[in-house]
Amino acid sequence: MKGTAAAALVFCVILSGCGGQQNGSAAPAKPRIALIMKSLANEFFLTMEQGAKNHQAAHSGEYDLICNGIKDELDVNRQIQLVENMVSQGVQAIVIAPADSKALVAACQKAQDAGVVVVNIDNKLDDAVLAERGIKIPFVGPDNRKGAKTVADFLAAKLQPGDPVAIVEGVPTAFNGIQRKLGFEDAMNAAGMKIVTSQSGSWEMAKANQVVAAMITEHPELKAVLCANDSMALGAVAALKSADKVGQVLVIGYDGISAVRERIKDGSILATIEQHADQLAVFGIEYALDMIKTKAAPADRETPVDLITLAEVGG
Amino acid sequence: MNYRRLLTDYVALALVIAGLVLIFGVSTQNFLQFGTFRNIANQIPDAMVVAVGMTFVLIIGGIDLSVGSVLGLGSAVLGVCLVRFELPLPVAIAACLTTGLACGILNGLLVVRWRLPSFIVTLGMLEVASGATYILTQSRTVYVGEPIERVSEVAAFGLSLPFMLAIAVVVAGQVALSGTVFGRHALALGANPESARLSGIRTRALTVSVFALSGLLASLAGMMQCSRLGAADPNAGIGFELQAIAAVVIGGTSLMGGRGSVVNSFFGVIIIAVLAVGLATLGAQESTKRLVTGGVIVAAVILDYYRHRLNKA
To answer: Each residue of B91-130: pLDDT tens digit?
Structure first.
């Protein structure tokens, strides 16, 4: 498996390298689609990329795929450069998971102006900025707010109205993080829970661990911690362990990574949300292929989010 | 060490810590209680041991930017050895520490062989080690659970084994710095590399061993973090190097080399940890946390400037 990952990496580099050299030659018969991801250091995006590669391998007669990712999720500048590089390489479509919902709009507009089909996946580009620039970029992806509300509703059923709960947010600037926070709040407010504190865990395990440890000292009566991603949920569980509060404080996450499924089995995490990462990029690619063929007007398409609890992981 | 030196050396930072504890104690309900201090003690061992290594690196006039990603790599090696290869814990820990040591030795050798600035060599190692971590873990969080969590659970007086180990590393580090030939040579090398070489100090071997120490301690920190979290996070240690450098510089170690104290670096780590935990207890927003942390780092360094003027007077 280690070899596969290395080979995938090399494959990706070679693909993007060769793409540049082919630029001057005759236009390829089948469309070339560029997949521009966020951090491939994140399991979620790696799964997404792997799903896209598998799909391409099964449909290699229909299109070519060029995959690129950035170093970490905050490396916005690098992602803008990637969009520009892909346009100059003459790809027919770009499927992008933007690292920033506003900063990437201009680059995507330039790509559209150059005649490239742009499809937005994962993290939705900002509606206000899109409207201001008078452009439409179709979004294919999950509704994070709805997903967060689903998992938080499941949690609410296990609590009593008035119970104090805490939220661990993602990076404050990330649109999906903000949506998940809103979804958590929707569910908690509707069920009459008291949100006593809401802080960022920067999407990271160690950071969330520190924040949650402090939360449970300051609010010993806390009944639940709602985490905007699974890494932070794991950090929260570690904090509860060292305070001997596993089971007393319920934890929910978001993303459905494999490590969290283990924790759901042993009961230390209550539930998470599966966004079908392996299918997300594929949905975007299929939509881009459609648009290339039909030249249809862009419209958004929502992808499924599913609740994962003990019943689903088969404890 | 005279009485006045002792006072200015340690009391100033201890006062800063006491001040912070007081502020958070007054402004929150439950900060001033045993749980908070146990939290802090159990969360900082990784930062403590990395700061010890970083203190020595700064003292010889170098810098080690790779500690965060070597921490991540160490934790990944440990997790993968335990979960995928199902090796016994001692073997997995040995593999983790060997990895860190190797990264450190490589840093040191590159620096002395081609007389390269350690800034750029360790920046390279930062990238290489995190790339290796992603390959090793397939960018996936490695869930370890029980076997490694046990390491953190062993406790006496409510303190975890990693914390006691980290205290031992700090004590050993301070003794090595102020009481051994190794420490005196390191200080001499940082103060003036040329005269250190001319006075017969084997500067190349010394440099390699200091970077080796830093790498080894970074992987030890990786082990500590992995055992605390019960999982190896492929993104562990991002930005950790800057936090370690901040702690060491708050403790009065010079970025120019030739001057430093391991115990004061430990105080620096505590200041940053108390701030982080205190602000989280307050429920401060991310923006506030960053503003306050940045302000305190700069203020502590300014305080250090006056402390030194007082020492010289």
So the answer is: 999 999 999 999 999 999 999 999 999 999 999 999 999 9
Q: Do B284 and A199 touch (CB under 8 A)?
A: yes
Question: Does the structure show a pLDDT above 90 at A138?
Answer: yes
Q: Does B7 fall in a domain? A: no
Lowest-pLDDT choice from A187-191, A232-236, A292-296? A292-296
* Residue A296 confidence (pLDDT): 74
A209: nearest CA partner in chain B? B229
Whether A40 sits inside 8 A of B134 (CB atoms) is yes
Q: Specify whether the CB–CB gap between B247 and B271 falls below 8 A.
A: yes
Q: From residue B140, how far is each of A209, A259, B80, B135, B257 by CA, in Å?
A: 18, 9, 11, 9, 39
Q: Which of B235, B284, B287 lies nearest to residue A204, judging by beta carbons?
A: B235
Contact (CB<8Å) A234/B230:
yes
Residue B103, domain extent: 32-312
What domains are there in chain A, each with its CATH number? 2-141+276-303 (3.40.50.2300), 144-274 (3.40.50.2300)
Q: What percent of chain B has pLDDT over 90?
A: 64
Per residue in A277-286, pLDDT (tens digit) is 888 899 999 9
Total of domains in chain B: 1
